[in-house]
Design a protein that fits this description.
By secondary structure, this protein is mainly alpha-helical. It contains seven helices and two strands. The chain starts with a helix and ends with a helix. About 10% of the residues are buried.
Length: about 140
């Protein structure tokens, strides 16, 4: 396992990023690129990935961005990454087991209904509906 001194001894993008993270904490890839304009974004991505792989930096938090995806902020340390935030829309889309089961049963009944009930046009459907309503009214 590589440690922080290994990267600091080398003259690479990873060493420049580590020196910057020692001075300023909680930086995104974009802010690293702003502070180190001589590094290409691809070099920053590769260096951060290598540092994360060797547990030298971690995702300390997530920032909201103008785009749809949140931005990871990085700090030096061997800690567990912060959890990726789940959007409210995605949370609302999650269904409980009972809701999934009731939808499956509903879909099954819909399939049976389509198989047994003949297809009708609007005029035919109105006639059937009126017969049904007359039948229901006669039961009362």
């Amino acid at each position: 396992m590589r440690d922080i001194e290994y990267y600091l001894e080398k003259d690479s993008a990873a060493s420049q990023i580590l020196i910057l993270l020692q001075k300023k904490k909680n930086l995104t890839r974009e802010s690293i690129g702003n502070h180190l304009p001589d590094l290409l974004s691809r070099a920053i991505n590769v260096a951060v990935a290598a540092l994360r792989k060797h547990h030298i930096v971690y995702v300390s938090s997530w920032k909201k961005s103008k785009k749809s995806r949140p931005l990871a902020t990085f700090s030096i340390g061997d800690e567990i990454d912060a959890e990726f935030p789940i959007s409210c829309r995605l949370e609302a889309r999650k269904l409980s087991d009972a809701e999934i089961e009731s939808r499956a049963i509903g879909a099954r009944y819909d399939a049976i209904n389509r198989a047994l009930v003949p297809a009708r046009n609007m005029k035919q459907q109105r006639v059937v509906n009126l017969r049904y309503l007359n039948h229901i009214q006669g039961i009362r």
